[in-house]
Amino acid sequence: MSGGPRPGDVFGEMITDAYAVETGTGTRPLAGGRLPRPVIEIIERDDGLINGAPSAHYFAGPADWQPYDRRAVSRVRGATLDVGTGAGRIALLLQEQGTPVTGLDTSAGALAVCRRRGVRDLVHATVDAHVADGRRYDTFLLLGNNVGLLEGVARGRVFLAALAAMARPGAQVIAQGTDPYGTRDPVQTGYHERNRRQGRLGGQLRLRLRYRELGTDWFDYLVCSVEELAALVEGTPWRLVDVDDRDAPYYLVFLRLAG
Questions:
Q1: Residues 188-195: contacts with CB within 8 Å, 24+ apart?
Q2: Is residue 21 part of a domain?
Q3: Angstrom distance (rounded) from CA 241 to CA 249
Q4: What is the pLDDT of residues 113-136, one digit of tens each?
């Protein structure tokens, strides 16, 4: 036995169990064989740091959202691609408001939960693969700190090019991120310096997700300042047109298709 995690749909397994706990239906992880066990998303960083967060926020309704999420949704227009839809909280609201919305995720388990919750239009793919489907959108949403999906400078530009290939004229990207540099925690500031020595952005995380006996491969997840994001966007088909940092260190950025 290696003792390491087993490959699988980590996020999907976690969100499926979280949905069972949330609704009281389905198979739930039990403590001592009797009581529902809290469903915790475990994030392991490549320097050994491990964090855990309860999964209930993936099911939060609009009344419990952060203010920036509500402001982001208020600026959605037209056909919308919710990238990294998770449990579908954003897609469900847009759908209820009559906005044509597609939820995209790489987790089959998460999409199954979305379907059970009532999200009608779902795609199991990466943004790169979805380009081949020929669908076009007016708004791309990267909420829930999903600026992170850009991963880093090189991959981020490829990612934005894929969105542009699916964009209608005048399309927009609304993305939520977190500026990581206000901390004085030496564990965090030391990690930023380590990244910079390796030629990476300070907040370019190297992570894997863990849930029960499952683990993902290691992947990059970008936590960056608005200034770093603006530099990344330069030279892509998009231009940065607005920033909402009223809830700093959390921010929204708004990109518009150039031309």
A1: 191/45, 191/47, 191/49, 194/47
A2: no
A3: 19
A4: 999 999 999 999 999 999 999 999
